[in-house]
Amino acid sequence: MRLFQILFIAFVFFNFAVMPTQAKDMVIKEPPKSLSKYYPPVSKQPKWIQQMHKMSGHFGGVFLNLKEKDFENVDKHADKLVEEYKKTSEMVPEWEEYFDIKAAEEFATAAKTHDIVKAGKASGGLGKTCGKCHAENEVSVWAKFHWPSFHKIKVTDPVSEKEVEFDEYMGIISSSFKGVTVNFGESQYGRAAKALKTFKSRFMELKSTCSKCHTGHDVKRFYVGKDADNAFAGLSQELNSDKPNPGKFWKNIGMLGKTGCKHCHLVHRTNSFIQEMWEQPE
Questions:
Q1: Looking at the predicted structure, is the pLDDT value of residue 8 above 50?
Q2: Which residues does 222 contact at the CB level (< 8 Å), separation at least 6?
């Protein structure tokens, strides 16, 4: 029973002490400009996230080795954690208030007693400092430094053959899509068929656009792959038939919307909105 209690306490602190955040604590604000020097293109390596991994590794190493009774490595990880914590606290002057050197040192001292319960309790103070910073900055840092910006991408419209901004191209695709659905709803099947050719040309151009980031063949076709091909084939068949079937038509429209547009938006659009706000001139 005693062993179970010790392992449970270690598990709780190991998994939750570093990030005791709640929804009400979450903040989305642009990270300080001084953080940019720790990410490409200013830095060749993403040094800030590397520091996060170092501290997390040493923090986890303390509990892992306490569990395994490898006390020599417990002490090493405890010392290295304090060392990296101090180093990180000096990297971004605007975030100095998030760090509590005393809490880090008290955790290291507790860890060196080789009592996993004491170490777990002492990790609470250190975890609060990490959790507060994560709650107020983690989402913003990931949005700014870990997601490519769509606002830097240009697309050549295959219909007009003009180069346009990515956001503008999304609007053009949306208009082409409405040309299909609105005309179909008005029973203007010939117009809808003509609009479908334009829409398909523009939609499938995303294969080239997506490949600028999604370099793997399977990945870049995730939103514009076989499902899209089948949907367009089904739409074309209905619009060129003597009596189009509304059920089949809207089913294929739904397939394009769900497997293509919606899935892409779910993954990318939130970060794009956040980046767009920060890129606007003050």
A1: no
A2: 214, 263
Q: Whole-angstrom Cα distance, residue 268 to residue 138? A: 17
Least confident range from 102-116, 132-146, 204-218, 230-244: namely 204-218
First to last CA, the chain: 61
Contact by Cβ (8 Å): 8, 63 = no
Smallest CA-to-CA distance from 232 within 174, 192, 264, 188 is with 192
Using alpha carbons only, what angle is made at residue 173 by residues 170 and 176, rounded to the nearest 5 degrees? 155
Angle at which helices 116-141 and 101-111 cross, to 10°: 140
| Cβ–Cβ < 8 Å for 96, 86 | no
**HSE value, Cβ hemisphere, 13 Å, CA-based, for 215:** 0
pLDDT, residue 10, reads 44
Measured CA to CA in angstroms, residue 239 lies from 123, 190, 233, 236 at distances of 65, 7, 10, 5
Please tell me what DSSP assigns to residue 32. P
Cβ(35)–Cβ(93) below 8 Å? no
> Could you say which DSSP state residue 99 is in?
-
Average pLDDT over the chain, rounded to whole? 87
Could you tell me the two tokens for 142?
């990931």
